[in-house]
Design brief:
The protein is of the alpha/beta class. It is built from 18 helices and 16 strands. The N and C termini lie far apart (51 Å). The chain binds flavin-adenine dinucleotide and iron/sulfur cluster.
Length: 454
């Protein structure tokens, strides 16, 4: 797939991969062997009929291709861009054993873009309204999927979202250069065309409790509030000016559009040298955003080695091409401020890998007397997130696990009969496609529950 050149793209927020042309998509589709037992489908968390949609592309039947995908996945333009296909469908593709696997994600993106660009996107058909009110809390991928499916069954669905816009991490976390926000906005428009009402700036647990919503006539609840509470390091200097969490930084840059300052009224202060701590997608998104906001040098500091980095390979490759530096096997031990409390240095220690820990990855161990200093002006901490307790605290009878995530059975039922949950608030930080899968399962369970309790 053609991409913007690294030297150009670090000066703009436009998407990096440019997508297949029709000709290239057909050439790529022709590589698919149409396996009788397609292993790629087993690798897809929502079991898209991959050979079927690729066959339609081969035959230039793009409309049939997109319809085939949408039977399994309602957000293909999003998943085609951000799903970690390299560890899902593409990892299983038989061609990958000797050659490059079929570029399944890029083909999914191609047909979804073809549908949008040709204005052929249509509103899914919904059953006649049954007047039963369902409340969906949060508007990320889990909730969007659950709301769309319930609207198709004919329910009167209302989403309550804390932010002023919908999409969850898709809009406040993942940057524009990986996922253009117009694509997410388009999906939210489809939801409203289907009759789903969205109530923004509504923090459930503060504005209303679930009990308040019950009293307003809602008969079932889906909680899809994600896991947006940043984890903090326990080291000195966290309160210095110039030390940010990745959530705060990315929310300002993406959702509040700081990258378009002064067109948007959100200033962001980026120093010359930015250090990002962490090794996941969030760390890489922060680093690449900082570069585009004008940092002269961006360094990622990660306590394990390159092999253990959980970030998508594609993002790591793009970050390296863009000149981001990596300090592997390195851990921060303190942030150092000047007389005005502005951060200006970070002290680190070198690490080595020991035995595997409970995550299966080798545990990093500090190497004695290996401390050193890096000069910096901005530090972004991207070491993970936890469950946000705002909603769960206001519903104390809801059963949580020891980390504060909601406990459900595999169909999304919580311990409270009319409350269902899915996505990151159940699993901890995971993927867009797994959140969507949970939203779909919960919609089926909610439908069964409401049919039984009419
Ligand atoms: P979220 O997307 O977190 O949405 C939850 C929504 O609920 C939010 O809109 C929030 O404002 C709202 N909310 C929270 N509390 C309340 C409340 N009390 N009342 C009302 N509303 C509330 N996954 C991938 O597959 N590929 C990637 O490349 C990728 N990159 C990522 C990059 C970043 C920077 C981050 C942070 C995550 C990334 N992920 C990626 C993970 C993925 O985005 C999440 O797993 C997914 O979005 C979870 O979906 P969700 O619907 O459970 O929650
Ligand atoms: Fe095509 Fe690869 Fe799937 Fe076989 S495994 S059907 S070659 S995409």
């Amino acid at each position: 797939m053609e991409e913007q050149k690294p030297n150009d793209r670090i000066h703009n927020f436009k998407e990096v991969p440019l997508g297949f042309t029709e000709e290239k998509a057909i050439i790529e589709a022709n590589r698919c062997l149409q396996c009788a037992k397609p292993l790629c489908v087993e690798g897809c968390p929502v079991n898209i009929n991959i050979p079927e949609f690729i066959k339609h592309i081969k035959e230039k039947n793009f409309r049939e291709a997109i319809e085939s995908i949408k039977n399994f996945n309602i957000l293909p333009a999003i998943c085609g861009r951000v799903c970690p296909q390299e560890v899902q469908c593409e990892e299983k593709c038989v061609l990958g054993k000797r050659w490059e696997p079929v570029a399944i994600g890029a083909l999914e993106r191609f047909v979804a873009d073809w549908e949008r660009n040709n204005m052929l996107k249509s509103c899914p058909e919904c059953m006649p309204p049954n007047g039963i009110k369902v409340a969906i809390i949060g508007c990320g991928p889990a909730s969007i999927t659950c709301a769309a499916d319930l609207a198709k069954y004919g329910y009167d669905v209302t989403i309550f979202e804390a932010f002023h816009t919908g999409g969850g991490v898709l809009v406040y976390g993942i940057p524009e250069f990986r996922l253009p926000k117009a694509i997410v906005a388009d999906e939210i428009d489809t939801l409203t065309e289907m009759g789903v009402k969205i109530y923004y700036n509504a923090i459930i647990g503060k504005l209303y409790s679930i009990q308040d919503l019950r009293e307003m006539g809602f008969k079932a609840f889906f909680i899809g509030v994600g896991a947006g509470l940043p984890m903090m390091l326990r080291i000195p200097g966290l309160k210095l000016i110039g030390v940010l969490t990745a959530n705060e930084f990315l929310t300002r840059a993406n959702l509040m559009k700081a990258y378009s300052f002064p067109d948007y009224d959100t200033p962001i202060n980026i120093g010359k040298v930015v250090i990002v701590i962490g090794g996941g997608n969030v760390a890489l998104d922060s680093a690449r955003t900082a570069l585009r906001l004008g940092a002269e040098k961006v360094i990622i500091v990660y306590r394990r080695s390159e092999q253990e980095m959980p970030a998508r390979r594609e993002e790591y490759h793009h970050a390296k091409e863009e000149g981001i530096e990596f300090q592997f096997l390195t851990n921060p031990i303190r942030f150092i401020g000047d007389e005005n409390d502005n951060v200006f240095q970070m002290e680190c220690i070198r690490m080595k890998l020991g035995e595997p820990d409970e995550s299966g990855r080798r545990r990093p161990i500090p190497i004695e007397n290996s401390e050193f200093i890096i000069d910096t002006n901005t530090i972004i901490v991207a070491v993970g997130t936890n469950a946000n307790p705002v909603l769960t605290k206001s519903t104390p009878e809801l059963k949580l696990n020891k980390w504060g995530y909601i406990e459900t059975d595999e169909d999304g039922r919580t311990n409270i009969e009319d409350i269902f949950a899915g996505g990151d608030i159940v699993t901890g930080s995971a993927t867009v496609i797994s959140a969507m899968g949970a939203g779909r399962k919960a919609a089926i369970t909610i439908n069964k529950y409401l049919l039984k309790n009419k």
